[in-house]
């Protein structure tokens, strides 16, 4: 998954952030509440976190019961299967204090998945991860190799089997899946080893692409439908973006905009795209005209309703450091989990 850069602007108040709903999206909290259903069990909520924000995780700690697991990006694998730690001890201690289950994200620090090429380094990597989970008393682990090279499809399967064998069955393994990976995942063999697959249904457009929606509803529905042909709905978490991008007009270079840092000009010019079902704005800054697309509360709510409609296991938020109280309240209203 893309690890976005934080947007260096002042964080808006909850009241201002909520105004995006009415000013640019045409939905309010009360309207969203009407779509909530008590007939099905609450969706699981996996909350990612990455160290690219300076603000505290106050909304998370205040509403910790709104999520099921916290998946902080704390570890990377080197070419030899060794683990590189990026643990934020303050967040670790606070999460433990709040009794938040932790399933840390582990990515490929080399960007090549070279450790998968050797059966020795695969086993070393799997053993190191299993030992880490046991030592730190984590709930499980999130594997983010996005995507493994197609030539390593069998080796990836072997790695996940080794990891499952080394971990107690009570430990959770989640795996992040990149849309349109070109066949890099053998789901029929991975499904017995993996508890949940996180469909990374965001970054349809991002830094390096022309401006466009982060996760158009139709695009999300299509990639989810494709995945449902290979993976049971009960093993899928639908990814939801808590951010957007802003492009200078005529450029493909985008700046990441956390939801809790949406600017006043964006809110003032916010419009709802009926075609893509996402919020956008054409606005001007001191550097010139820009166009921004972002996942507003209305878009987040639509993805939650899609997960419910297709009876998915849950949703996965990238990432909780971009949330504010308005996002957490939406989760509480729509997921229905009680403290």
From TrEMBL:
Domain GH18: 43-334
SMART domains (alphabetical): Glyco_18
InterPro entries to which the protein is assigned, alphabetical: Chitinase_II/V-like_cat, Chitinase_insertion_sf, GH, Glyco_hydro18_cat
Tagged with keyword Kinase: no
UniProt-recorded name of the protein: Spore germination protein YaaH
A biological process term (GO) from this entry: carbohydrate metabolic process
Signal peptide interval: 1-31
Keyword Repressor listed: no
Top-rank taxon, per record: Bacteria
This protein's UniProt keywords: Signal
Pfam families: Glyco_hydro_18
GO molecular function, one term: chitin binding
PANTHER family hit by this protein: CHITINASE DOMAIN-CONTAINING PROTEIN 1, CHITINASE DOMAIN-CONTAINING PROTEIN 1 FAMILY MEMBER
